[in-house]
Every structure is written in structure tokens, then in C-alpha cells.
Design goal:
It is a single chain. This protein is an alpha/beta fold and about 325 residues long. It is built from 10 helices and 17 strands. It has 2 domains: about 1-145 and about 300-334, Medium-chain alcohol dehydrogenases, catalytic domain (Quinone Oxidoreductase, Chain A, domain 1, Alpha-Beta Complex), CATH 3.90.180; about 145-275, Rossmann fold (3-Layer(aba) Sandwich), CATH 3.40.50.720. The protein has helices spanning about 40-45, 90-95, 135-140, 145-155, 170-180, 195-205, 235-240, 265-270, 280-295, 305-320, and strands at about 1-10, 15-20, 30-40, 55-65, 75-80, 80-85, 105, 120-125, 130, 165, 185-190, 205-210, 225-230, 245-250, 270-275, 300-305, 325-330. Strands 3, 4, 5, 8, 9, 16 and 17 form a 7-stranded mixed sheet that branches. It has a 6-stranded parallel sheet with strand order 12-11-10-13-14-15. Strands 1-2 form a two-stranded antiparallel sheet. α4 packs across α5 and α4 (about 145-155) packs across α9 (about 280-295). It starts with a strand and ends in a 5-residue tail after the last strand. Bound molecules: NADP nicotinamide-adenine-dinucleotide phosphate and zinc ion (2 copies). NADP nicotinamide-adenine-dinucleotide phosphate (NAP) binds near residues 41 and 173. One zinc ion binds near residues 40 and 144.
Length: about 325
Amino acid sequence: MVSFTVYKGSKDGSIVKSTTSKPELADDQVLLRVTASGLCGTDEHYRTADMVLGHEGCGVVEAVGPAVRHFKKGDRVGWGYEHDCCGTCDWCLSGRETFCPERAMYGYADLDQGSFATHAIWKEAFLFALPEELTDEEAAPLMCGGATVFGALHMYGVKPTSRVGVIGIGGLGHLAIQFAAKMGCDVVVFSGTDSKKEEAMRLGANEFFATKGVKELNIGKKIDCLLVTTSAQPDWNLYFSLMTPDSVVFPLTVTGGELKIPYMPFLSGGIRIQGSVVAPRLVHKQMLEFAARNGVKPILMKFPMNEAGITKAMKTLSDGDMRYRGVLVPEQEA
Ligand SMILES: NC(=O)c1ccc[n+]([C@@H]2O[C@H](COP(=O)([O-])OP(=O)(O)OC[C@H]3O[C@@H](n4cnc5c(N)ncnc54)[C@H](OP(=O)(O)O)[C@@H]3O)[C@@H](O)[C@H]2O)c1
Ligand SMILES: [Zn+2]
Ligand SMILES: [Zn+2]
């Protein structure tokens, strides 16, 4: 039996410390000691659920099951939103296991484990070796936030010549600016106020527009690709007029309700709306290599991995004060 500490959501939103116990490692299972975990906007959605939180994990391998082939004790690894898939359906066979009907993802499967914890046990095939160029703390936010924005840019035909808009400079947005800039794109950033302007330009933006209270935006050349990384849906009327014909909008925001868009600009401009969820493993691996090679790194605020630290990090995020990704680290390192 293996037991470890985990931190869960609860009905009233308070963070609850608990213990998860699992049988001895079997087959391709890997036991990790968590060294860092990002706090993603999506964790906020599960704060009132009775489940272990956190899905941007990094850690060190402590033990491996008998069938593990590629990792050994002491290796640095990360994991993200997806923990398992069937491996045989058309989606899995074509490297798009994020759409597998049997996918095991955060929020729906393996609710007794997450990255807000001292340890976790995952299948070898869903772990990623961490590049030397990134510390565990720097790699953690890439496991969901980084993979999500890189996936959208990389999988759907965005070119180095594209003019790329990013709305919302949070965990995802500040990585999207860096990835798009390092891909060579012309990056245009939209943010509520001017307060993040300097940082956005430093991260690689060419132009910056504050949007609060603005009814119309005049940005000159129109946009080929728009990544929506806000925590709520934006005013679509404001943005559809900025899109060039045959352009693509990526709504990455997780939210309930409906997507209501201005119909005629969508139709007459031949604009595509492309949903996207994290990234399949090949793209995730390519994202890590790209980040390591090009110096894409999150800007972090560190918090201790305990009830108070997680609560404080979540408050900082919901108050809009996170710059730009919260990372939970084991108490003695905080
Ligand atoms: N599709 C996927 O696979 C995927 C993966 C991960 C996360 N997500 C989702 O992506 C969204 C962003 O995640 P995140 O971790 O980057 O969150 P975050 O760090 O909170 O960033 C969100 C940003 O949105 C802006 N914002 C805040 N409140 C807003 C409001 N009421 N209306 C409009 N904009 C607001 C802020 O940017 P400014 O200050 O610049 O305005 C903020 O920094 C969340 O909805 C999350 O659940 C989706
Ligand atoms: Zn996430
Ligand atoms: Zn499958």
C-alpha cells in the first residue's frame, strides 16, 4: 500500500487536506514525489468538487512498476490534464488522444489524485521527461497552460507570418504571447487595462490594446488568428470586426453557457471557430522542446503546498492579482 497527502476541493470551496491510499505499483505505473504544481484557471471550476485539485504537475520519480520501460528512480517528469486513453480508437491511433471517447481527464477521472499533493501515481505513457533548461517550477505551468496555447498555435495552421491576437494576459495568455512571438508571429495583445502593457511588450507583443469600456477597436492590419485566453467570454462584437477573411478564432476559455457570435461577419468573412483542449502527447512533447530551445518560461508567484498556500494562491488568482502563474511548491521550499 502507498499513501500520500492530497488537497481537495469541497462543497463550500475550502481546501481540504486528505490522504489517498493505493495498492503497490503495478504494470506501467510510476510513483512521483511532487516538486511543483501550477495553479490553472480551470482549477477554480473544480474548487467546490470533492476531488483532488491540480493538473500542472512536476515531480521526481520515486519508484516504478514492473513494466515501466522509460523512466527510473530520480528522473524529473511532468504531467498534465490527460492520464489515460484507450490506445486503439481512430483518435488515439492518429495521435489525437485528447478526443478519445475513453480519455481519462482531470475533473472526470482519477479524482483521488492530482498535482496538489505530495505524491501521485500515473501511467508511464502519460508522463513527460522535463528538459534540463527548465526548472520543475518553470515546467509546471507548461503542463496545461503552455500545452493549451502551443497546441492551438501549432496544430491548426498558424504561420510565422500570421498576425496573432491574444486576449487576456493570465497564465495562458502570457505564455501564448511568448510562444507566438518565438514562432515569429506578429503578436497583438488585448488586456482589460494598461497595467500589464510593459510586461506584454517585454514578452514579445508588438502592439497592445486596453479594452475595458472600449466600444470599438482600431488596430490597423487585421488579425489572422485570435487566441481567447480570458477567464470569461469576451465581447465577441468587439473582436469579430478585427478578423481578416479566412481567419481563425480559438475560444480557449472554459465556461458554461453558450457561444453567441455576430453571425454575418462570421459567414461573410469565412471565419473559423476552432475549439481546442490542452494538447495530445506528441504536441505536448514538442511544446516542451520548443520552450526549452527558445527560452519560453512562465513568470511565477510561489506559494507553499498546504491548505493556506493553496487558498492564498486561489484568492490571488480570482482577485486578478496573479503575475502570471501561481506555482505550489513543497512547504520547505516555499
Ligand atoms: N481549452 C483548454 O484546454 C484550457 C486549458 C487551460 C485553461 N483553460 C481556460 O482558459 C482560461 C484562462 O486560464 P488561465 O489559467 O490563464 O486564467 P487566468 O490566469 O485567470 O487568466 C485569465 C485572464 O483573463 C482576464 N480576465 C480576468 N477576469 C476576467 C473577466 N471577468 N472577463 C474577461 N477577462 C477576464 C485577465 O487578463 P487581463 O488582465 O489581461 O484582462 C486574466 O489574467 C480559463 O477559463 C481556463 O479555465 C482552458
Ligand atoms: Zn489547466
Ligand atoms: Zn482512444
